């Protein structure tokens, strides 16, 4: 066992310097991600007892993200990518501070906090995606995302449990608001540490300055369809657990415990899958994630109880990392092909990809709001998730077409050696 651990550490050290720095930066920042994803939504629920406000908060976040992606493209010509990446991490703490300073959680205040959080995610993900694309290749991306998912899931065991019970214990003294303020302060400290690690990297800005295009190769539009389908459920993956648990279970401690149950198994599974799979396995991993999320949604819709929530969370702990583990390498492989084919900056595709996600997010969140206003919050929580989960199953066939065409594109782009000399055969295969 010890020898196996040493071998895995040696494998990590064999990766490039920037690979290691980016992984460690994301590891540190991942400590605050459960707080941002789960407990901010729980705070809105506790303070307003209105799931619709949670969705409004999420919609303003999703509106801020593409705006900041676009702004980030211009700022990259004036600031280093490390500065903008760090700014994104720091803004998450600022957004939480704004939220905690509100005396009344009205839609305006929630919207402002949501837009700042959206800017945080925009700067963070725009630069993180570019750096991940730049420092990895098609052969080690499964390992990169498997490693990240392993750390994220381990942290998801500890952080939600500790913070959930910390808030609940403080609530017993009648000062839950102070508990959230303390958590916010800790978040800000962690973002500073992550920024310090980020600045140790030798990261370079995109070389091609133009990043806004309105026409792309037909292959790219297939990926945009996949992005839209992903966006359909993305909002629910973030806010649904908090809303369901606060409504059906009712305590932050239970929220933290539910997030932690089964996460160790999920973490080990994701690392093993990432370490031992190759590009040819991505469709199977993606399909498994889609199926698990659909099962989770159906269980929640049928039971709609505390038991249903726990089962929903258990399936979600496996579904979300499986989807990410396959999706990002598929996305990056398409960008690798098209940057060479169309001679454009990688960031042009990263920016345009966000538009596809945004359309899906608006559709998914809009489905929830329509059901909540026209029928009831219970109907929305039970059936909106089921609806978008079933629709997202179509992603499997879209991804299958993308992977199939990617193989053809790679073969056509592979260099053909001269066969004039006897015995020299032109190689045909996949480029890295």
Write a structural description:
The protein has a single domain (16-202, 214-412), classed as MFS general substrate transporter like domains (Growth Hormone, Chain: A, Up-down Bundle). The chain is 81% helix and 0% strand. The chain has 16 helices and no strands. The longest helix has 37 residues, at 306-342.
Strand percentage lies at: under 5%
Rg measurement, Å: 22 Å
Number of strands: 0
Distance between the termini: 32 Å
Give a concise summary.
By secondary structure, the chain is mainly alpha-helical.
Structural features:
16 helices; disordered C terminus; 81% helix; mainly alpha; Growth Hormone, Chain: A; 432 residues
List the helices and strands and how they pair.
Elements: H1 2-13, H2 17-29, H3 33-48, H4 51-75, H5 81-101, H6 107-135, H7 141-172, H8 176-198, H9 218-248, H10 252-260, H11 263-276, H12 282-303, H13 306-342, H14 346-374, H15 377-392, H16 395-413
């Amino acid at each position: 066992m010890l020898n196996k651990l040493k071998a895995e550490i040696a494998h990590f050290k064999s990766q490039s310097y920037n690979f290691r720095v980016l992984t460690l930066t994301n590891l540190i920042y991942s400590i605050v991600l459960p707080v941002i994803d789960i407990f901010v939504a729980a705070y809105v629920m506790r303070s307003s007892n209105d799931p619709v406000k949670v969705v409004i908060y999420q919609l303003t976040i999703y509106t801020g993200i593409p705006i900041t992606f676009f702004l980030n493209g211009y700022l990259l010509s004036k600031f280093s990518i490390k500065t903008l990446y760090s700014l994104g991490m720091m803004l998450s703490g600022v957004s939480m501070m704004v939220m905690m300073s509100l005396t009344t959680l009205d839609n305006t205040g929630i919207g402002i906090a949501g837009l700042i959080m959206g800017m945080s995610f925009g700067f963070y993900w725009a630069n993180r995606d570019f750096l991940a694309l730049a420092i990895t290749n098609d052969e080690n991306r499964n390992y990169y995302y498997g490693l990240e998912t392993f750390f994220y899931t381990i942290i998801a065991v500890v952080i939600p449990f500790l913070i959930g019970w910390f808030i609940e214990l403080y609530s017993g003294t009648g000062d839950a608001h102070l508990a959230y303020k303390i958590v916010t302060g800790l978040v800000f400290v962690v973002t500073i540490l992550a920024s310090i690690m980020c600045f140790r990297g030798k990261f370079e800005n995109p070389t091609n300055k133009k990043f806004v295009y309105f026409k792309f190769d037909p292959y790219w539009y297939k990926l945009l369809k996949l992005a839209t389908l992903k966006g359909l459920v993305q909002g629910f993956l973030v806010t649904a657990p908090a809303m369901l648990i606060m409504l059906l279970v009712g305590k932050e401690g239970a929220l933290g415990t539910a997030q932690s149950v089964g996460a160790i198994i999920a973490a080990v599974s994701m690392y093993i899958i990432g370490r031992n799979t190759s590009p040819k396995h991505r469709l199977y991993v993606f399909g498994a994630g889609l199926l698990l999320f659909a099962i989770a949604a159906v269980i929640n819709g049928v039971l709609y109880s505390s038991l249903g929530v726990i089962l929903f969370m258990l399936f979600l702990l496996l579904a979300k990392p499986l989807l990410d583990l396959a999706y990002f390498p598929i996305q990056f492989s398409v960008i690798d092909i098209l940057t060479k084919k169309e001679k454009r900056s990688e960031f042009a595709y990263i920016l345009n990809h966000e538009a596809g996600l945004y359309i899906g997010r608006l559709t998914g969140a809009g489905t929830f709001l329509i059901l909540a206003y026209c029928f009831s919050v219970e109907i929305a929580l039970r059936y909106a998730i089921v609806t978008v989960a079933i629709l997202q199953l179509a992603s499997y066939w879209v991804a299958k077409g993308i992977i199939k065409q990617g193989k053809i594109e790679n073969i056509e782009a592979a260099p053909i050696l001269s066969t004039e000399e006897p015995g020299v055969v032109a190689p045909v295969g996949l480029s890295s």
